[in-house]
Amino acid sequence: MHPLLVVLVLAACSGAPPRFSGGILAPIEIRGERLLVTALIDGKPRVMVLDTAASITAISTRAARELGIEVIAETTINGHIPAQVGLIKSLSIGLANHRNVEVAIVDLPNARDSSVPFDGVLGLDILARHDVVLDFRNRTIALYPSGAIVENALLPGMARVALQRDSRGLMRLDVKIGDHPPMRALLDLGAPITVINHAAAKVLGVSRPMFQVPSMTVGNVQLARRTMLVRELPVFERAGLVDQPAILLGSDVFKDRALAIGYRDRMAMLSH
Is the full-model pTM beyond 0.85? Predict the structure, then answer.
């Protein structure tokens, strides 16, 4: 599959989230930089990590056992991780209900062992059915009918930034750190902290495993000063970015911002 051209629209003025009609609002939590939402799975509340880089919603083996989820098939995740496929009769976020959802049942070692326990990962198979507005400042997620972003995108003060979406669904954009040339970045709101690979660290002259960047720019929008990690993550290899400077852009970058994503039309808006 050829990469698809996507457009990211960055709002250059108001810090308030976009407001559209017909949205369904639900609270989110930000704990340990993780973006969490409580979903009702077959009528029972479960804490899920919002993950824009996950192609399928996943439930931990423990949660699946507690919920009595029916196993209907076997599969692999990321090409090599064994998992089962379960059928959820109902998955609700606020008043937005999704019926007969297939989910991956997989061992999630960080689900209970981390300082921020969770029961699963909410992936693009659910999120991409909607236009989504995440208001980090007011801790809410709003789900809108597909197309709402496009209908409200042509507003004053918008800066456009090109994105690509590859065959795995990963969204890519160019990010500039300081005065260095732009680097390819992967948008992953499921990551609690932004990470660069060793090739990027070499370009930046960074030798420590953790460092602070003075500035980070997307298009002509400057993002806040952030701490980053230097690691070679499996996602860089899957995206073919091992040998070139690359960034995994996590949810920490969007603190105190509003991010709106229109998956069907491949557009988004980001407030200052």
Answer: no
